[in-house]
Write a structure and sequence with these properties.
Fumarate Reductase Cytochrome B subunit, 224 residues, 9 helices, mainly alpha, single chain
Length: 224
């Protein structure tokens, strides 16, 4: 079971994400966007989207920093004060992300026009995101000082997957909520090519060299 959870699922998820993204881009590249509903409702979208993106991106940045440079990360948290600051900041950002995500879900449930354009894939993605954030908050508040133990437990497993020499000893010894949070993260990779989440890799870089566009309004002037 551990081999399936911590070796089979991660590699299968990455393969599905990469191949699915390539196929989607080659066959339906104009759908590779967030498919914004801003014109349907903007106020709650503004607050929810900002809270969600600022919270989750900073949390992911911390996870990535520990993954890329675990030695530097451990030295950074060698001070008790810095460990306290990171712990409080991380939990605060997690609740910020949860607040933003709940606001976005509530917006889709209560606004009729936004609800109409919400697909089953959108609901599935939101459910998985809520589950991932929820388990992350549970782990952070139950198994304290994650910034200190994460580089020595989860990071070795993730780095071993990258080098194609899986070592699951450290992750398989963790409590089940930590395992669940780690594995469910790969579920997002499976959904990545088939939902709005794919917009995370779309950047309008071509705007830097695209010719200027002239916009002409074709409407009658209001009579005085």
């Amino acid at each position: 079971m551990n081999q399936f959870l911590f070796v089979g699922i991660p590699y299968a998820a990455v393969a599905i994400a990469v191949l699915g993204s390539i196929v989607r881009y080659r066959t339906d590249r104009f759908s590779v966007s967030s498919q914004s509903s801003q014109f349907l409702e903007n106020r709650r979208l503004f607050w929810g989207s900002n809270a969600w993106h600022y919270g989750i991106l900073l949390i992911l940045g911390a996870h990535l920093a520990a993954l890329v440079a675990p030695g530097w990360w451990s030295r950074l948290l060698g001070s008790t004060t810095r460990l306290y600051v990171l712990e409080v900041t991380g939990i605060g950002l997690a609740f910020l992300a949860a607040f933003g995500l709940l606001m976005l879900v509530g917006r889709r449930l209560t606004n009729r026009r936004v609800f109409t354009v919400t697909t089953r894939g959108d609901w599935l993605l939101l459910a998985v995101l809520l589950f991932q954030v929820g388990t992350g908050i549970y782990v952070a508040t139950t198994y304290r000082w994650g910034g200190a133990w994460y580089p020595h437990t989860v990071v070795p497993w993730l780095r071993s997957l990258v080098t194609l020499h899986p070592e699951i000893g450290t992750i398989s010894a963790m409590p089940w909520p930590v395992k669940l949070h780690a594995v469910s993260g790969f579920a997002l990779l499976v959904l990545f090519p088939y939902t709005r989440l794919v917009h995370a890799v779309t950047y309008p870089l071509h705007y830097l060299w695209r010719p200027y566009q002239v916009v002409m309004w074709n409407r009658k002037a209001a009579r005085s």
